[in-house]
Amino acid sequence: MDKQTVISIDAMGGDFAPRSVLEGVALAAKKHKDLFFFLFGNEEILMPIIKEVGLPDNRYKIHHTTQVVKGTDKPSHAIRTGRESSMWQAIMAVRNGYAKAVVSAGNTGALMAMSKICLGMIPGIDRPAIAAILPSETGPIACLDLGANAECDAQNLVEFAIMGDVLYKVLFGQDNPKIGLLNIGSEETKGREEIREAAGQLKEYGSHLNFIGFVEGNDIAAGSAQVVVSDGFSGNIALKTLEGTVKFFAHTLKRGVKKSPLGILGFLIAGPALKKLKKNMDPRQYNGAMLVGLKGISVKSHGSADAFSFACAIDAAARMAKNDLCEKIKTEMSSFLNLTGLNDTTAP
Fold this sequence. Notes:
Layout: E1 5-10, H1 19-31, E2 35-41, H2 43-53, E3 60-64, H3 75-81, H4 86-95, E4 101-104, H5 108-119, E5 129-134, E6 141-144, H6 154-172, E7 178-182, H7 193-204, E8 210-215, H8 217-222, E9 227-229, H9 232-257, H10 261-269, H11 271-281, E10 289-292, E11 297-300, H12 307-322, H13 325-340, H14 343-346
Parallel strand pairs: 1-2, 1-4, 2-3, 4-11, 6-9, 7-8, 7-9
Antiparallel strand pairs: 5-6, 5-10, 10-11
Helix pairs in contact: 1-2, 1-12, 3-5, 4-5, 6-7, 6-13
């Protein structure tokens, strides 16, 4: 396994686990010949499915555990009672250096809490944020937080902006990405107090961050900002709304085409363009959100992910691992804090 990148998998986490998880692992294994998987879960349950999906024997190792973190478990309960769970053990594999990244479709709150405890935080960051890459009219955009922190104060939002700036630079090599704060309006007087306070602080860091002010929900798909920052409550609603809109568009188009021969003819003519649109807008290919701010790579897959979706989350984890993303964020974050003089006030 010296030349392989090891990915740790919570095989029991998710609405359709372990089948959808193992099917996703099998797809990822076919695509990435240099990946090896540590699978954490009940061996008696996993083995028949592994044989069925055709995962080669030399591409995985099972770490047997019967305990599972339920989707309904509170993070505090999961931490107290879940030390032998598939989720905790999969995260610990990263902490102990046996794996480069962990992927789970399980309980979001539990994954965040366990990852924070097991992996630790990068100095200068108070809370991890769920960050994901989404498509827009102008290219890929990074959005955070998407559900890790329902409530955030101004300092949390500022930290998210810094992390988002670093994340975008590392992933896409673009200097000075535009950063926007998600709000109910673009006017300076709009929004909750903590959002307005965060905006004031970000303006002060103008020489280090390209903060463009407030952005609204319609600005996300328009790509008005390359980095969109919000609290986890608002960000998660925005994300789910975008995903639902894409599905509604696809359903409405399909229904309209079937209503008349002319619609079918038009569909056949526009077929190649529509297939390209479907591929670009398929939310499954953007599955795999990173808990940014941790010292290790922890990736959250949608709980309802199918095999293709989960394979995409593995893709994201592998890219981050191979590019040493956490170390780059740590280096850039330290540099930024030194430049802005924030080390004295934010470093633990």
